[in-house]
Design brief:
Elements lengths: L1 H8 L17 H12 L6 H5 L5 H7 L3 H14 L8 H18 L4 H8 L7 H19 L2
Helix pairs in contact: 1-2, 1-8, 2-5, 2-8, 5-6, 5-8, 6-8
Length: 144
């Protein structure tokens, strides 16, 4: 997912500096868009708008947006039509929590920003690593 995360991290950077904030995509949106591209999820544009409130840990430094976007992408990959027991999605979600906590030490935006955010690149490195975590989860799920 690295190339897609880098693509969306750079979105709008070709615009004048004063316009760049208008093109910014939060962590949740970047992860969902990246998974959409890499895994051909064919999600409609409104799917990305729905994640706006998940940025910056619900704009309250709670659950990391990169985690939330990753979880949404797993839902698109593994949630089955009803009726279903959703066993595969349950395993994928639990594995994402486990792998994300191993990578970052927490799911909380506040903690992750304090320990992993870059002063210059902001959360871009976090998004890249979250994409790697996502790929590992998908790889593990595909081995089942």
């Amino acid at each position: 997912m690295e190339k897609y995360v880098e693509l969306y991290n750079a979105f709008g950077k070709d615009k004048p500096v004063e316009e760049q904030p208008r093109y910014h995509m939060n962590c949740a949106e970047v992860l969902l868009r990246s998974a959409n591209e890499k895994y051909d999820l064919n999600l409609p544009q409104e799917s990305f708008r729905m994640l706006q409130g998940f940025g910056a840990g619900f704009y309250s430094e709670k659950t990391c947006g990169a985690f939330s976007g990753s979880l949404a992408a797993l839902g698109a990959l593994y949630t089955e039509e009803r009726p279903s027991d959703q066993a595969k999605m349950t395993r994928a979600a639990k594995l994402l929590v486990e792998e994300f906590e191993k990578e970052f030490g927490s799911l909380d935006c506040d903690y992750i920003k304090k320990h992993h955010r870059d002063d210059v690149a902001a959360c871009n490195p976090v998004k890249l690593r979250a994409g790697q975590v996502f790929d590992r989860v998908v790889e593990a799920m595909e081995k089942e």
